[in-house]
């Protein structure tokens, strides 16, 4: 989309990486890194929507993250509950609709209930859409999509890209135009595996807790320089 002749991506995805390393470099507990990282989601999300971006998808917790130490996972679950319960009214006030991608049945019943409440309370939001990936993996999403298709007993000749997209977590949403990954890693790590085939990629060495609004503006400025071809030329 264009905003005063400036091309603004309609959909941005962010891989929130580096909470633990940020904490280590500041001689702080790992858990503090996660707390700062969660707070930064609020700051950056506001800036993203203010810039004219309509959809933001954040990679908050992967299917692999369950393998971390129990103490760390338990703390993350606590943070999720705080986010889901404390921020919902602010999101409603801001007009932000919230979706959740991932294998949500992995979570405890109380967190699943909180997720449903947030989705219901924010479903009328029209000023932006925030997708939160929890217990998410791109391959797992595809497996779940294929299982849905098989369960419907759809004929082989009727299987198409469009059909697969209708069974993904992101059903009804456009693919991301820009993917940002913090912490210096230059890979997608299973983030939106199907949806990112033509996304522009932007990598920064900043750890997620220190990724600022100015860093976001730098990523958007870089996006302006890209010429998107989609394989056509």
Give a verbal description of the structure.
With 233 residues, this protein is an alpha/beta fold. The chain has one domain (2-224): Decaprenyl diphosphate synthase-like (Undecaprenyl pyrophosphate synthetase), CATH 3.40.1180.10. It contains eight helices and eight strands, in the order E-E-E-H-H-E-H-H-E-H-E-H-H-E-E-H. Strands 5-6-4-3-7-8 form a six-stranded parallel β-sheet, sandwiched between helices. Strands 1-2 form a two-stranded antiparallel sheet. Helix 1 packs across helix 2 (30-50), helix 2 runs parallel beside helix 3 and helix 3 packs parallel to helix 5. The longest helix has 21 residues, at 30-50. The two termini are 21 Å apart.
Task: Give a quick summary of the entry.
With 233 residues, this protein is of the alpha/beta class. The chain has helices spanning 19-25, 30-50, 70-86, 88-94, 109-122, 138-151, 161-165, 213-225, and strands spanning 2-3, 6-7, 11-15, 55-62, 96-101, 128-136, 178-181, 200-203.
